[in-house]
Amino acid sequence: MIRGFLFDLDGVIVDTAVFHFQAWRRCAQKLGGDFTEAQNEELKGVSRADSLKKVVEWTKASVNTEEFEALLVEKNEWYLELVQEVSEADGLPGAVTFLEQAHAQGIKIALGSASKNAPMILNKMGLTHLFDAIIDGNNVINGKPHPEVFLKGAAAIGLDPEECLVFEDSIAGVQAAKTGGMSCVGIGTPETLEGADLHFTALGDTTPTELVACFNM
Ligand code: B16
Ligand code: MG
Asked: Does residue 190 have a cis bond before it (omega within 30 degrees)?
């Protein structure tokens, strides 16, 4: 019985995934390399430090601990510059309406984002009041694909994992949801999000009522 929704942020509610991509590319170029949009799929949902490890590996640069820490700070500064103007208008198609409908129907709602910037982005979008709990990169030790962020999200809204439906746009996040024992809707294609129970291009392509009926059949 689904009674709660656990939302990823970047790429599900708001299109900040594109800003992470731009900031990571700038980082790769600083290291004398670059990476493709296909490789970027591997960075989605992955923590800042784990993402940088991959970027360093792809560019084959040699980076000491001090430089690694400085790059983490710099990447975040570039990202913050890019998201400065984010507002409700940057919600992905149908996302804000979907959240409002779920909230109005009494479905428990938690955020399960890898991003340490998630609370700030939700504030900028004026959506914080729709969430019963917010679990983000500041509250977890293990990043996705580890299920910690979603297990903590479920616990924070007082539900068991099997009572929760996760919404994810990253393969790491889909794996986290399934490992955690939750149902999962992939926001993307079945090719990139293998393992999700259902796929939609955006939240606007379905409704909370339709999904609850579908999973509680
Ligand atoms: P930050 P999500 C994730 O957010 C992003 O998809 C990923 O690209 C980013 O590296 C990660 O957050 C950490 O973000 O640097 O802001 O802490 O998709 O889990 O909402
Ligand atoms: Mg995401």
From this structure: no
Evaluate whether 3 touches 162 at the Cβ level (below 8 Å): no
Q: Tell me, yes or no, if 197 is annotated catalytic.
A: no
* Predicted confidence (pLDDT) per residue in 163-176, tens digit: 999 999 999 999 99
Q: Specify whether the CB–CB gap between 5 and 183 falls below 8 A.
A: no
Annotation says 8 is catalytic: yes
Mean pLDDT over 121-148 rounds to 97
What is the rounded CA–CA span in Å between residue 187 and residue 180?
18
Residue 173 C-alpha from the chain's centroid: 7
- Rounded to the nearest 5°, which phi and psi values hold at 117? -90, 0
Least confident of 4-8, 67-71, 87-91, 112-116: 87-91
> How does the average pLDDT of the chain come out, rounded?
97
Please provide residue 78's backbone torsions phi and psi, each rounded to the nearest 5 degrees: -65, -40
Q: Residues with beta carbon inside 6 Å of ligand 1?
A: 8-11, 17, 20, 43-48, 51, 76, 113-117, 137, 170
Predicted structure pTM score: 0.93
